[in-house]
Amino acid sequence: MNEIVGRGKWATKAGFVLAAAGSAVGLGNLWKFPYMAGENGGAAFVFVYLLLLVLIGMTVMLAELTVGRHTQLDALGAYKKLSAKWAWVGGMGVLCAFLIMAFYTVVGGWAIKYFVASCTNAVAGIDFGAFITAPMEPLVYTLVFCVLTWIIVYYGIGGGIEKASKIMMPLLFIFIVIIAIRSCTLPGAGAGLNYYLNPDLSKIDGGVILAAMGQVFFSLSLGMGCMITYGSYLGEDSSLTQSSWMIPGLDTAIAFLAGLAIFPAVFAFGMEPGSGPGLMFATLPQVFDKMPAGEIFATIFFLLVIFAALTSAISLLEVVTAYLVDEKSVKRGGASILGIIGIFILAIPCSLSMGSLANVHIIPEIASMNIPAMGFFDAFDFITSKLMLPLGGLMLCIFVGWVWGTDKAINEITDGGLTSFPLAGIWSILVKYIAPVAIFLVFLSGFGVI
Prior knowledge:
Blueprint: H1 13-24, H2 27-39, H3 43-71, H4 75-82, H5 87-119, H6 128-133, H7 137-154, H8 156-184, H9 190-197, H10 206-219, H11 226-231, H12 240-268, H13 277-290, H14 294-328, H15 332-352, H16 376-413, H17 424-446
């Protein structure tokens, strides 16, 4: 394989798996999975999610890792190397990562604010609405989050991302287990556990299936170049098939535990799980305030939120950094600095769109498609999650299945036939036919077409 000198490599297989799982584990695991389950039949949603995780999530994950390891290049360079006509797909992935970081760092800053407040037992007293609409304070915390992300990426794959992931991911898992145990032992927690773990299969309909499919796709960081980029730092001795189930497995374990941490506590105190950041920053602080020793668990929880945000943010910044290193020949240090400066500049209007720029809409209302007018924050979220991510995933499947070819992909997966891949035929069918159709349905549902 051709390799750019100085790109770096994963020092250990465990380090790669933890870093890649960290990329998948983000803020969406902590609020969106429990919320989506709550909105779509509880355990019925979890059942469908797990089924689609195996059929779709692991299929697309393996495809992205395979393209990355085979080319040893960033997302744009990987497509360009295999077919110059398809370089735009990789370029879209780089842009997607950049846009996601613009609003993701804002939420990461909120997490730092709440962690600092929880250390002084002041988290329940925060007026979430007043905080996020303030002009300067959220930007200060956003800058702190950006600096933390940049420091990790600056020190490279083995020295920065891998070392940080080996610390943050085990701690993240330990912290969420602690919160889940405390939540499940609260008086009245049984109602939440029953709702979350006892499936009523009669509630499964097309809407639940589409919701679960969308959550699988977006939860695993697919379609934005993260897994292609991380896969490009793998050596030939790594098992792509093993990684393709371990990464989704760890991601799903965190998401599942998040449900155990949130549902029992919310039910125990007679509250309803909210959606979006409101669940973490408005509902849960009130839950912790009512919980015995709640200040301790609030501190643990918001440190957990910071770790989850950082493990995803470093993978997104790495997509941008790898592009500048591979395609523009910028040294890693300079590439990471340029990337984070650009991201922070774009994060400024995203933060201000909650307050002083609330009336500035970069996407107008489209009543016929049920699309409301959106400011910077909501517009970047909409453009990436509803348009760029599913389109990137769809194009990846078409590219691997029909352009590059599953025979060449399987040859890479099996190291030229040296290792076995018993499910090669099934995977080929999934990536060529099943996954593209499923992703296309998610794409249509995102625009209210179905």
